[in-house]
What we know:
Number of helices: 8
Bound molecules: uracil, iron/sulfur cluster
CATH topology: Uracil-DNA Glycosylase, subunit E
Amino acid sequence: MDFETLRQECLTCTRCSLCETRKNVVFGQGVPDAEVLFVGEGPGANEDEQGLPFVGRSGQLLDHYLAAIDLDRGKNVFIANIVKCRPPENRDPLPEESAACLPWLRQQFRLLKPKIVVCLGRIAAQQLIDPKFPIMKQHGQFFEKQGTLFMATLHPAALLRNPNNKPLAFADFAALRDKIHEVCLHTYAPGEG
Ligand code: URA
Ligand code: SF4
């Protein structure tokens, strides 16, 4: 199984009822040898239209934070979501929807073998780190699970609603940059990986 085969399978998924209202499955975007995997919550309206993750206003902010530490979805990271189809009215994914969709993310994880997983916001952190993860208390901290480092930062959409928290997210990205220097081999040396 390679990434393209997985993508093709995922694009026709009907494992949960979100398939009935989606326009496009948002499989994810990035490079297949990414050492850093970002995981958001689920597609919004723009993402649903375009079939790509984080392409609206929160995506612009995310790209800005990525660029600040020399990360780029076209060069050295992969961006995915907990659910790959848009929940109607942008509601939180239901537990059964997340459960139905998680095997796709697990397969992406198995193929990528990222060194670091960054959860964007509470929903991803509670799915991937701890069901009770207190995002405002523990964002920016690294947790090791079976050889992979996990950290969570504030969701870019939350930063747009509450710009006072931007310095907190910026500090998380600075910590991420340091951790990448410590544990990643080729993230900052494109072409050599
Ligand atoms: N918010 C998310 O969590 N994911 C996206 O892809 C876009 C916005
Ligand atoms: Fe399949 Fe996930 Fe879309 Fe549900 S959200 S239909 S499980 S791809």
